[in-house]
Amino acid sequence: MSDFHGVYPYLVSPIDANGKIRKTVLARLCDDLIKQGVHGLTPLGSTGEFAYLGSAQRMDVVRTTIEAAERRVPVVAGVASTSTADAVAQAKDYERLGADGILAILEAYFPLSDTQVESYFRDIADAVDIPVVVYTNPQFQRSDLSLDVIERLSGHPRIGYIKDASTNTGRLLSITNRCGGAIKVFSASAHIPAAVMLIGGVGWMAGPACIIPRQSVELYDLCKRQRWDDAMALQRKLWRINEAFARYNLAACIKAGLAIQGYDVGDPVPPQAALTADERRAVEAALKELA
Predict the structure, then answer these.
(1) What's the rounded Cα separation, in Å, for the pair 277 and 207?
(2) Does the predicted model carry a pTM greater than 0.90?
(3) Which stretches within 55-109 are classed as H helix?
(4) CA distances in angstroms from 59 to 1, 31, 55, 186, listed in the order given
(5) What is the pLDDT of residues 224-254, one digit of tens each?
(6) Helix 114-127 to helix 84-97 angle, to the nearest 10 degrees?
């Protein structure tokens, strides 16, 4: 369970109008994704709207995911906070629930130095006995991880992975060159996953895999078998969904896509808004192309 690779959907957090997690819906989604062949599950990633949920809601999401997975695939739970102490507490809680790994996310209000950024991730990894995936998304984070910080963190015995959503694939190659095999790279939907696999990536963690799991697994398998022509033909087809989603709120798009597929996941958490009728039709059209 500590060798993470392949397709890890960033799960949505189904929630009703009263703020209750729709556990039955989430459990069904987890089970269906596993049956479609995904290699792991990631609750409380960006698509999971972690920034909009309270601690009790986050615990419900992680617990439900772990129980639904039934040890069939690893569960890597997202931990995010502006406070190191709170992030450490979350990581410990999720490990106690049975998470197989932690996706460590840094939220920041005031700017942080490289030393402070590094200590946040190092303290999380020091607090648990399960692998840690470092997550970076400079589009939304006030403080990013520099290459120097990533290289130093790669020496930590429990930090063996990074999920990078920078959109800069050259940066991924720099990480690989500097860290060697000490840290493995997961792509985000902001990158072209097949290209990341070509330069040594081990898979991708991304929201769109929630609604196109079968196709995502097929793409991963083609890359692993080094059938690059076939992989790129499929990647070009799948990229249309990324282009459609780039226009709108990602959580709203994935929730709309899942609703179209019959999952009653509810709307995004306010102040986010559900897609308009025209936007929903655009998502539906994109999904029909990939059916």
Answers:
(1) 21
(2) yes
(3) 55-69, 84-97
(4) 21, 19, 6, 25
(5) 999 999 999 999 999 988 888 888 888 999 9
(6) 30
